[in-house]
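Marked as duplicate of an earlier ticket. Keeping the data here for the record.
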Amino acid sequence: MSTYQGSLIHEDYHKLIDKKYIRSNNFENNQIQPSSIDLRLSSKAWRMRASFLPGKIQKVGAWIDQLAMQEIDLSQGYILEKGSVYLVQLQEKLKLPEHVEALANAKSSTGRLDLFTRLITDHGTEFDRVNAGYSGPLYAEIAPNSFSVLAKRGITLNQIRFKTRDNFKVQEVPA
């Protein structure tokens, strides 16, 4: 049974970034919301044969090797075709403390575009969940449902929220 109870807030996210638990080459101020962080697409993407979850013992890269049909560069933009499944590495990476887990979801604007998107992690057994203590890259699975859409590096389709166990405080973790 999970003992996670407290959702982190804006100030805590800044502390997690300062302590390098959430990493990126650069953060934009508008990424950090009152109770979530917007996740940005990187330029690295793949058109996939199918959706997948890596499972407890595999990394996402092993599935890319098996299921990728095409590697795509999003730096100048690329049209994601309706009815296809894409995997995009996100700009943010995590190195979470053992007392912090995360849950992701599509941003509301993503739903208005009729894009199905969810978060995947190495060793993941559930979509949109990041286990406590996770260290590694983040990926977004994207499937356009109604029409093809333009995807480009820096676009935010998902957001992530962090929860802490018991009375754990971010400021108590050594840098």
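See parent ticket for discussion. The chain is about 15% helix and 45% strand.
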